[in-house]
Specification:
The chain contains 10 helices and 13 strands. The chain is of the alpha/beta class. It has a domain of 211 residues: NAD(P)-binding Rossmann-like Domain (Rossmann fold). A 6-stranded parallel sheet has the order 2-1-3-4-5-10, with helices on both faces. The two termini are 37 Å apart.
Length: 331
């Protein structure tokens, strides 16, 4: 059943976080982590800690424990993960399962050793069954078969949710989980092989507009429906949940509205200014037919998204064009 914002761990009541406390953002160079970092900075946090993957490999257990013992953070946001789109997930399930399980287990165990006061684990809406009733409620977790193109990643994230719940039950620490819908925005992965839906569309249409290509070919049929959330909204939701929510259930984070992939592609083309034809390759997978989250729990906790889809796409296209020459093609 969806968590009740008023259902708390023993002796804990959510409230404002100490802006001077040591706060670790795991994955602070990624799209989500960097947005969380920006939000915390804007909110007045003065002791933010982060390490790049080159400085700290969270898959390395000893190094992770050493880092936590050295910094002793009071708050942690776990946004570090190996992520990718349909092609990457379907092609590299071993890496998506192994890397994410190791990152999560090491961070959660090290945080537990230091008795981190407040921790937020970020997952993904792909944890839910492929054919879950729409909109998807939190209690749909583990009620059906997963989407096979990203089941390895989903299983890893489900393990993280259960890890949070286990810590709450056994140690009484007020740790929580948030499951965002499809995220996009500045800092996204725009690679040709590893990107999610929206950055893939943006790159495709910007490239086509630049070369004058007569048509763009997108994957699938264009009929699946997707809910998109700007990463800056997600970052605001993270801080809000840390200060206003405590419950055993993961919390869905989204807009409560979706659109077909075809409609999203049309909006991207309009924003980019592409005038050519759009074609659809139905030999490629569609993924889940629909993935719309029920955001009742989030709304009861007092938060709703504020960045509209067209507004968010426009700003993201602008960011991509400004950074296009400096982006790495990461699969």
């Amino acid at each position: 059943m969806a968590g009740d914002p008023m259902t708390t761990t023993s002796g804990f009541t959510p409230g404002p976080l100490d802006r001077g406390a040591t706060t670790y953002v795991a994955g602070h160079r990624g799209m989500v982590g960097s947005a969380v970092w920006r939000r915390l900075e804007a909110a007045g946090f003065t002791d933010l800690r982060g390490r790049s993957s080159g400085e700290l490999d969270l898959r390395d257990r000893a190094s992770t424990f050493d880092f936590f013992a050295e910094t002793r953070p009071r708050y942690v946001v776990l946004a570090a993960a190996k992520v990718g789109g349909i092609l990457a997930n379907d092609s590299h399930p071993v890496e998506f399962l192994s890397d994410n399980l190791r990152i999560q287990t090491n961070v959660l165990d090290a945080a537990l050793e230091q008795r981190v006061e407040r921790l937020l684990f970020l997952g993904s809406s792909c944890i839910y069954p492929r054919l879950a009733p729409q909109p998807i409620r939190e209690d749909s977790l583990l009620t059906g078969h997963l989407e096979p193109t990203n089941d390895a990643y989903a299983i890893a994230k489900i393990a993280g949710i259960l890890g949070i719940q286990a810590v709450r039950r056994e140690y009484g620490l007020p740790w929580i989980s948030a499951m965002p819908t499809n995220l996009y925005g500045p800092g996204d992965n725009f690679s040709t092989t590893g990107s999610h839906l929206l950055p893939a569309l943006i790159r495709r249409y910007v490239d086509a507009a630049g070369t004058g290509a007569p048509y763009v070919t997108n994957w699938g049929t264009g009929t699946p429906r997707r809910e998109l959330l700007h990463v800056d909204d997600m970052a605001m939701a993270c801080l809000h949940l840390l200060e206003h929510y405590d419950g055993p259930s993961q919390v869905n984070v989204g807009t409560g509205r979706d659109a077909t992939v075809r409609e999203i592609a049309e909006t991207v083309a309009e924003v980019v200014g592409y005038r050519g034809e759009t074609r659809w390759d139905d030999s490629k997978p569609d993924g889940m037919p629909q993935k719309l989250l029920d955001v009742t729990t989030l709304e009861r906790a007092g938060w709703t998204a504020s960045i509209g889809l067209r507004e968010g796409i426009t700003s993201t296209v602008g960011w991509y064009r400004a950074h296009e020459g400096t982006l790495r093609d990461v699969g």
